[in-house]
Amino acid sequence: MHAFKYHRPSSVDAAAGLAKGEAKLLAGGQSLVQAMKLRLASPSDIIDLGTIKDLGGIKSDGKTVTIGAMTRHAEVAHSPDVKKAIPALAALAGGIGDRQVRAMGTIGGSLANNDPAADYPAAVLALNATITTNKGKHEADKFFKGLYETALKDGEIITSVTFQAPKRAAYMKFKNPASRFAIVGVFVADFGGIVRVGVTGAGPSAFRQADMEKALSGKFAPESVANVKQKQDGLNTDLHASAEYRAHLVTVMAKRAVEAALK
Question: What is the 8-class DSSP label of residue 231?
């Protein structure tokens, strides 16, 4: 690990002012610290967001759930507000990594990092979330741009994420047995005739499955997606799974998610 300057700003504006050049923002540190240990990242400055109180907390009005960027996965998983409004989101958070990762990792850090196997991006797309930053708002469908790439600009910091509460929803993933990252994860959300399906782990970045959304909007049932095939073009191939297998898993996980949402 290379030498760096460490900062603990007390406000988002102060943090944004420091986020220049080779500086990096530190949220939960579950990705950045590991990259630094392996010398895959060598930031000149580390800007710790953990001391900014305005970035925490969970609020719900029944129709939406707003989660502060520095809210830990474990907090989302155990939140009574999240469990009541969007139980599938609480379940997703409870299945991220292991206990230590859930105790330290944050929703804002996860979305800003945009790991192709992260769980939250599928929920952001399926629940039509809005990502609020110090510079404005981003629609879910325009936020994820590619492998570890988002719509965030230099000096832009996620402050909160607002999810729409669906009629019913569920998330299912085929997980890596060691890391519990999603080899493929599918989040299905029914908003009463309008269905959104978010897929993570399969490609370089999370995406919506339009054919499944159309089929489920007509009839929200497992058989509606059982024969919907995901194209394997552009999907990930690695030591864990081929693109062909990941395409198969998208259909399997979508079917299981619908079954779970109907229970």
Answer: P
**143 domain-assigned:** no
Q: Is residue 252 part of a domain?
A: yes
pTM of the full structure: 0.96
Strand partners, 24: 46
Phi and psi at residue 63, to the nearest 5°: -95, -25
Cβ 39 vs Cβ 1: under 8 Å? yes
* Residue 184 parent element (H or E): strand 182-190
Range of the domain at 27: 1-48
Taking only the tens place, the pLDDT of each residue in 106-156 is 999 999 999 999 999 999 999 999 999 999 999 999 999 999 999 999 999
Q: State the amino acid at position 57 in one-letter form.
A: G
- Tell me phi and psi for residue 192, to 5 degrees: 85, 65
Structural domain tally of the chain? Answer: 2
Identify whether 31 is part of a domain.
yes
Q: Kindly calculate the radius of gyration of the chain based on its CA atoms and give it in whole angstroms.
A: 18
Count CB-CB contacts under 10 A for residue 179.
13
In a domain, 126, yes or no: no
